[in-house]
């Protein structure tokens, strides 16, 4: 029996996709964000896509793939932008989007199947007056398993930190062993699975913390000068007295790329995009006044997430709007140093001018407050891009390179050795997301 025939005999409720165009589409993510990855990954595709309906079907697929020694790449919604979900060596892409049910929701946590979309989950939590701690700006599409396996942080990270900061409580892992095993990991063990691109196992369900729901108010504030915007946002980000979900800084003219906001945004002026507790709205406006900032747009809590909202212009959505305005934009990810971020930004602006536009997402990482950069860079060549990266690094504004599909080469301080060891145990034939975990030679070359 061919692999396809074997799969057809076990996938009874799910779906197998063999049609060329659909296979191509479901083999790709947002890798084209990076002009470097676009060249590297354009040709990659799966042999076929399987969309299982339940965990038992996932297990059947893994068994067949293991017996036949076929590579398997897991897909959530395919919104990753480092080519994480792209099969490097063909084989089967397993799309988990139909594993989308809440298993158990209680006060303080939710256990959910890995393919559930984060926005749907947040909606269900809101019914119980609860909310997620963190989610990516892609939450309308992105899945829980894809976020945990391929993301890092997002809305909420200014208060609650990243995925590694207690924002994942547990995960049920399925291995590519003989026999297939299924077990739950929690606490420190999760480090081998978070942001590991599914190289160490398939997450079939995940338990996330929930917090009491707030009434969030979204705000766009315009400032005269980047320095005032940075100082104001630092005050909001730093003090726990301010209840916030999002504190973003956008240098002019980035906000003018946001077409839906064109009535309220001008080319000049630097902007802060915020999500704050509604009861602090007036106090935030008076603080902004001290830094010569003024409100240009607000979304009241009743309209929160109805239609396009402020968070749709932040995190990596900022880059998406820039790309819509001009396809030559690309981006970097970096951590500025809290002690001297203004000086670091001045050095970068003095060196590169409008070739680099500043975008900051304030976040916490292992408790530390960080002005994290997602700067836009006008792309001219790979060499020039790496000159920019080099300048950032030499000035302590350390870059997590987003122009690589190799796990860990993009930063995030992953424990690659531990992940590699876990992979040997959970995936001894190296079939899960082949080619993403760098070899020791690739690590030293990067
Ligand atoms: P996919 O892209 O489908 O998968 C991501 C990785 O996880 C792949 O390696 C895949 O193989 C693996 N995987 C998926 N599901 C599983 C599973 N169940 N078990 C094991 N492995 C699995 N990221 C952020 O962190 N924060 C942001 O704010 C953010 N904003 C973004 C904005 C835009 C416009 C875009 C294009 C991307 C953004 N990203 C952001 C990146 C991406 O959206 C996130 O990583 C997202 O959470 C991925 O979810 P997904 O379901 O699309 O995962």
Verbal overview:
The protein has helices spanning 3-10, 20-26, 35-41, 55-68, 118-127, 144-150, 157-160, 226-238, 281-290, 317-325, 341-352, 382-394, 416-426, 440-445, and strands spanning 15-17, 48-51, 72-75, 92-95, 102-106, 109-113, 130-132, 170-174, 182-186, 202-212, 216-223, 244-250, 270-277, 294-299, 329-331, 334-335, 356-357, 359-365, 368-373, 376-378. The chain has 446 residues and is an alpha+beta fold. The strands form four sheets. The chain has a seven-stranded antiparallel beta sheet. Helix 1 packs antiparallel against helix 4. The two termini are 43 Å apart. Flavin-adenine dinucleotide binds next to strand 3, helix 6, strand 10 and helix 10.
What are the main properties of this structure?
six-stranded antiparallel beta sheet, single chain, binds flavin-adenine dinucleotide, seven-stranded antiparallel beta sheet, alpha+beta, 446 residues, Uridine Diphospho-n-acetylenolpyruvylglucosamine Reductase, domain 2, Vanillyl-alcohol Oxidase, Chain A, domain 3, Uridine Diphospho-n-acetylenolpyruvylglucosamine Reductase, domain 3, 3 domains
């Amino acid at each position: 029996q061919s692999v396809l025939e074997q799969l057809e005999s076990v996938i009874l409720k799910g779906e197998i996709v063999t049609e060329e165009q659909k296979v191509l589409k479901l083999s790709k993510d947002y890798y084209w964000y990076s002009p470097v990855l676009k060249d590297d990954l354009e040709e990659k595709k799966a042999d076929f896509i399987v969309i299982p309906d339940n965990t038992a079907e996932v297990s059947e697929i893994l068994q067949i793939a293991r017996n036949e020694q076929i590579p398997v790449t897991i897909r959530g919604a395919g919104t990753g932008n480092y080519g994480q979900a792209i099969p490097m060596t063909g084989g089967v892409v397993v799309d988990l989007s139909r594993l989308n049910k809440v298993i158990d929701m209680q006060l303080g946590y939710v256990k959910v199947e890995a393919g559930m979309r984060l926005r749907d989950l947040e909606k269900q939590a809101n019914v119980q007056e609860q909310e997620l701690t963190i989610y990516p700006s892609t939450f309308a599409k992105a899945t829980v398993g894809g976020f945990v396996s391929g993301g890092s942080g997002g809305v909420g990270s200014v208060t609650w930190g990243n995925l590694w900061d207690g924002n994942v409580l547990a995960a049920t892992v399925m291995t590519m062993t003989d026999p297939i095993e299924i077990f739950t990991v929690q606490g420190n063990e999760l480090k081998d699975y978070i942001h590991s691109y599914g190289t160490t196992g398939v997450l079939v369900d995940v338990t996330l913390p929930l917090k009491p729901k707030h009434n969030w108010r979204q705000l766009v504030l315009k400032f005269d000068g980047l320095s005032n915007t940075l100082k104001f946002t630092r005050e909001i980000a730093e003090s726990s007295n301010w209840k916030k979900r999002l504190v973003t800084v956008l240098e002019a003219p980035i906000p003018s790329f946001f077409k839906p906001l064109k009535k309220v945004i001008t080319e000049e002026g630097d902007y802060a995009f915020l999500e704050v507790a509604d009861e602090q709205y007036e106090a935030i406006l008076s603080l902004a006044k001290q830094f010569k900032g003024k409100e240009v747009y607000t979304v009241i809590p009743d309209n929160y997430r109805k239609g396009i909202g402020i968070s749709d212009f932040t995190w990596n959505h900022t880059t998406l709007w820039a790309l819509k305005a001009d396809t030559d934009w690309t981006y970097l990810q970096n951590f500025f140093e809290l002690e001297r971020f203004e000086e670091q930004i001045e050095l970068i602006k003095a060196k590169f001018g409008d070739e680099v536009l500043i975008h900051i997402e304030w976040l916490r990482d292992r408790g530390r407050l960080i002005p994290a950069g997602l700067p836009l860079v006008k792309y001219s060549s790979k060499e020039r891009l790496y000159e920019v990266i080099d300048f950032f690094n030499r000035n302590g504004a350390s870059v997590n390179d987003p122009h690589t599909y190799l796990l860990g080469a993009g930063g995030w301080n992953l424990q690659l050795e531990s992940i590699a060891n876990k992979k040997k145990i959970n995936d001894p034939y190296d079939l899960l997301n082949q080619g993403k975990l760098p070899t020791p030679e690739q690590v030293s070359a990067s």
